[in-house]
């Protein structure tokens, strides 16, 4: 029975840690936006958008336009 409890605790702990493993880093978000826009990243900040954590990436495009691109910090998708 003790082994069963240890297995359950281990499974629960592993499940609790999964979202942390799925987090998108600041560098990953910056690289993704740089690749998508072809521009130069000016800044990257963690922000809240509709209750979700997002990376707010400010970039200057090759045409000289400054844009702000949001990247979901958990999925790397653009909200």
From TrEMBL:
Annotated Pfam families: PepSY
Residues spanning the signal sequence: 1-22
Keyword annotations from UniProtKB, A to Z: Signal
InterPro entries (UniProt xref): PepSY (IPR025711)
Record Gene3D superfamilies: 3.10.450.40
Keyword Nucleotide-binding: no
Domain of life: Bacteria
PepSY domain: residues covered: 24-75
Protein's UniProt name: Peptidase
